Structure formats: C-alpha cells, structure tokens
Amino acid sequence: MSEKNNTTIQEKVAQLHELVAWFDGDDFQLEEAFDRFKEAEKLAETIESDLDTMKNEITILKKRFDTE
C-alpha cells in the first residue's frame, strides 16, 4: 500500500480496517502476517499523529475564539 500525503484520516482508517479484516479473512497466511501487522501498526501511528495534529489545531482555534 502506497502512502499518500493527501490521504484523509477517514481514508486511512478505512485502509486500516481492510488490513485488520485480512487477519480474519480466508486469505490469511502466517508468512504474511508479520509484514501486514507492521503495515497496520505504521498506519495506526500515522492516524494517531494526524488526530493529534488536528486536536492541536482545534485547541488553537478555540483559544482564538475565546479571546475575541
């Protein structure tokens, strides 16, 4: 899966759901599990970082709103 900088958080979450669903699917192969897990872990970290950034931006905007 190629990582795009302009991918939305919602799209990343959908990709993560697809990766997680693979583990329960018929295509599961133990030999691929580690690589898929690492890919899912990296994607989850990216999502968490994106959400933290969004939270910080919202906090800044809220402070600006409160001072006006």
In brief, what are we looking at here?
With 68 residues, the chain is an all-alpha fold. The protein has one domain (9-67).
Topology:
Elements: H1 9-24, H2 30-67
Question: How would you describe the overall organization of this protein?
Answer:
This protein is an all-alpha fold. It has one domain (9-67). The chain is 79% helix and 0% strand. The chain has two helices and no strands. The chain has helices spanning 9-24, 30-67. Helix 1 packs antiparallel against helix 2. The protein is rod-shaped, with a radius of gyration of 17 Å. The model has no long low-confidence stretch (mean pLDDT 90).
Give keywords.
68 residues; 79% helix
Main sheet: strands, sense, barrel:
none
| Annotation field: number of helices | 2
Alpha-carbon Rg, integer: 17 Å
Segments where pLDDT lies below 50 for 5+ residues? none
How many distinct domains? Answer: 1
**Helix and strand composition category:** mainly alpha
- What is the string of SSEs from the N terminus onward? HH
Shape: rod-shaped
Beta percentage is under 5%
Instruction: Give the averaged pLDDT, no decimals.
Output: 90
- Helicity, in percent? over 70%
